[in-house]
Amino acid sequence: MSNAPKSGNASAITKAYEHLLDKLSQKTHQGEVVVQHVVDEIKQDASALYDLSADEIVLLEQYIKRDLADASSYLQHTGEELKSWLGFDLHLIEQAFWDKFSQAADQTTTELLQLKLTAEQAGYQTGEVIGIGTLACDQCGEKLHFHKPGHIPPCPKCHATQFHRVS
Q1: 136 beta partners
Q2: Looking at residue 136, what is its pLDDT?
Q3: Which of 73, 134, 155, 163 is an S-S bond match for 124, by CB 3.0 to 4.6 Å?
């Protein structure tokens, strides 16, 4: 299975990503920090609300775990604030999304470190959904900045499709 959505349902996956992050943030705020349990519980909700296939739900789960694992790894290894990880001004990010993302990343740091290896091996490719942060093209190094969830486009400089996370 490819890591990019196959259908024309790309915007639904992006909306479901935001929904899943919102629910994850609410659950972790209530003290439920077992990410897999929370994700399993709410992905059914996202499937129904956004009419996603089973394959799209699997992709959605991979996307959100990957992004939270990257953020949590940064927090654990540097002791810096999450805003340093992003590498761009926070005013560019929708405040509501930032609140949800930072809360989920802060409260799930330990558990998500276990997911770090998977996230590092997976990399990023055109068509996948990403939360916030910066990716660099594996071919030319061009940086792509994401201020809200969205799909990864081909590199604007060399049109390559493989990326790695910078922040």
Answers
A1: 143, 164
A2: 93
A3: 163
